[in-house]
Specification:
CATH topology: Alpha-Beta Plaits
Number of strands: 5
Number of domains: 1
Largest sheet: 5 strands, antiparallel
Order of helices and strands: EHEEEHE
Length: 100
């Protein structure tokens, strides 16, 4: 298992409308069913440039322990669910341990 982090948007990709909590909770439910769990961190300020245009938006970092195949499914679902052109995710660790 790996530990990944994905940056979840707070606005829809095709509008400036904020995403409602209910919509985020729907995403949470699907991700839990795919991966078994997730850790939602405090929102952060994101900035990036695309074709010389600056985009600024708060993003929600979410950590997920899963396989690479499951993470690919998470990313594809995230792109569709939030109507995004792109979503950033990255590997935090290739070693994860759960001790009981």
């Amino acid at each position: 298992m790996n530990l990944y982090e994905i940056l979840v948007p707070t606005k829809y990709g095709d509008t400036i409308r904020p995403i409602r909590t209910r919509h985020h909770k729907e995403w949470d439910k699907v991700i839990r069913s795919l991966s078994g769990g997730l850790t939602i961190l405090s929102p952060a300020k994101g900035q990036w440039i695309d074709r010389d245009q600056l985009y600024e938006e708060r993003v929600i970092p979410v950590r997920i322990m899963c396989t690479e195949a499951i993470m690919k499914r998470v990313v594809q679902f995230t792109l569709k669910h939030y109507r995004q052109k792109a979503v950033m995710f990255f590997l935090v660790s290739d070693q994860c341990f759960v001790v009981r």
